[in-house]
Amino acid sequence: MHRAEEPLAAAPKAKTTASTAPILAPVHPSRRLISPSLAALLARYSVFIALVAGALLSLVLSFTDQAAWLIVFCVLFPLVLVGVFDITQSEHSLLRNYPVIGSARWVFEALRPYLRQYLMEDDLSERPFNRDERSIVYARAKNEEDRQPFGTELDTYSAEYEWMTHSLAPEPVAHEPFRVSVGGPACAKPYSASVLNISAMSFGSLGRNAIEALNLGAKTGGFYHDTGEGGFSPYHRIHGGDIVWELGSGYFGARNRDGTFSPERFADRAVDPQVKMVEIKLSQGAKPGHGGVLPAAKVTPEIAETRGIPMGEDCISPARHSAFSTPVQMMEFVARLRDLSGGKPVGLKLCVGHPSEVFALAKAMLKTGIRPDFIVVDGAEGGTGAAPPELADHLGMPLREGLILMRNALVGTGLRREVRLAASGKVTSGFSMAANMAIGADWCNAARAFMFSLGCVMSMRCHTGACPTGVTTNDPHLQRGLVVPEKAERVESFHRHTVHALAELVAAAGLSHPGELLPHHVWHRVSPIEVKPLDRLYPFLAAGALLEAPDETFYGADWQAADADSFAPRAAVGPRRAA
User: Fold this and answer.
1) In a 3-state reduction of DSSP, which class is residue 348?
2) How far is residue 235's CA from residue 479's CA, in Å, rounded to a whole number?
3) What string of DSSP letters covers 387-453?
């Protein structure tokens, strides 16, 4: 057996003597030349102190024959003034504690979007539009090469990847532009629309030059230009491009003094031959269910004239319409506008919210026998203006889900053949159009893509009035940079090349028109090892399914809750909150 080791004997403590004492003994706080708090203060103010000293020294030396010191003083003195301001102001604690150098934070914060966009982010990581999406718009707008070499840069095994299936017997590429006839039996003046058009952007949100360029491009290319809620302005009229007049809850251009709808003013403008269709805006993707206010200070004489509002007062855009309060009344309003416009197509635009309200619209169509000629579904990912982050990020259905729901409501009630359906939201390419059409859209509208064609660089300053490219500003000096004839050519060119790209996809699929695209033509990768066509990912109802057996569909509870005489559900949907 091994004997346990005995513990070592403790070494005797060394005796402290003067010879073994530490050479550097700690200094008592009372004997320090500078206290820690003063040292920290000097460190924080060191740059400011150095600037003051440098400015004084250069001022003294400037009285010598060396003029260079005067230049140094002229550089340093403004920085000293900045430091004095930083120390005395009370709004920013960072500047009070770190004068002059604290301002660097705001400099880098202002530069951050540009540094990320041009130096740090890759071509596929930007939001809301990545560099590849923007580059294809820029190239097509400028008639530049838009083909890419060496294969796709996309990760074809990521969960976001989608593709179209192609045919082994492709059709010839169509050279005639695709058109869609809009207007049912109640229409005296149906309209032949392009499959790609300019979505709603108001005068006021966009400057006069941008509006003119868009309309001239639409005139040249044979597609329509939606006015946005801001009304039918003089700049929409100058070049004579086809107009879809959007009528929102403010009824701008067709309102009484109290903000209610004016049939006389509407009829006076709606019969204009340039107005091809009328669109009732119920909500928009950027901020559905939210009204808006244009402050009195921003109401110019031109905006006041266009919108029919007085100068010196806030311009209110309510969250809901006053001309109707139920789905049935809405259908009656559609019929009224159709009559007042001389029989032109009248439609609805909305970002889809409660499913029961979508079904309430369908029930109102069945009850009244009145059909809107078209419905534009705006995706929650859309939006050219500004909105509170909570609304922009988390309110409303994205385009795909909203479009499928609206498609199912119309198909399931047998109304789809009578009502055209359009999609609006992040449309930048032929594939984004084809995917929307495969799930039910007859045509697509784009807003931000056409802004890119005007020269927008996504500086994210649309709401400030300081757009660097003159697109979303009324500043005449900034607008001067946007030359109407030049930008109009780019608008038309982007439209032409993008529709041609759609034609190439349709032909490759063995089809002759995008109206023949179906959900099974588009496949989506669910995971690295699983893919499905869209008709196996989403529910697509058969014709009449909601009328024949609604409870057997995915939407049974919402259908039962829908009421043609009220937007409020008439029955509970889903589990109740605990008592």
Assistant:
1) strand
2) 14
3) --HHHHHHSS--HHHHHHHHHHHHHHTT-TTTSEEEEESS--SHHHHHHHHHTT-SEEEESHHHHHH
Give the tens place of pLDDT for each residue, 286-331.
777 777 777 777 778 888 888 888 888 878 788 899 999 999 999 9
pTM to 2 decimal places: 0.83
Secondary structure of 121-151 as H, E, C letters: CCCCCCCCCCHHHHHHHHHHHCCCCCCCCCC
Q: What is the CA radius of gyration of the chain?
A: 33
Q: Tell which phi-psi region holds residue 571, choosing left (phi > 0), alpha (psi between -120 and 50) or beta.
A: beta
Is the torsion defined by CA of 306, 286, 422, 565 positive or negative?
negative
CA distances, 448 to each of 182, 239, 381, 462, 489 (Å) = 24, 21, 11, 11, 17
Kindly report whether the peptide bond that precedes residue 128 is cis, defined as omega within 30 degrees of 0: yes
Instruction: Give the mean pLDDT of the chain.
Output: 88
With H, G, I as helix, E, B as strand and everything else as coil, classify residue 542. coil
Angstrom distance (rounded) from CA 494 to CA 175 = 16
Q: How far apart are CA 206 and CA 385, in angstroms?
A: 10
Distances (CA, A) of 195 to 55, 164, 444, 481, 496: 66, 19, 6, 30, 11
Query: Among all chains, which residue has been given the structure tokens 């569909």?
Result: 553
Tell me how far CA of residue 110 lies from CA of 55, 71, 93, 308, 461, in angstroms.
28, 29, 19, 38, 11
Q: What percent of the chain has pLDDT over 70?
A: 90
pLDDT of res. 118: 65
Q: What angle do CA 461, 462, 465 make, to 5 degrees?
A: 85
Q: Which helix (H) or strand (E) holds 334?
A: helix 327-340
377's enclosing H/E stretch is strand 374-378
What is 561-578 written as a DSSP string?
H-BTTBSS-SS--SPPPP
pLDDT tens track for 157-193: 998 899 999 999 999 999 888 999 999 999 999 999 9
**Which pLDDT score is estimated for 302?**
86
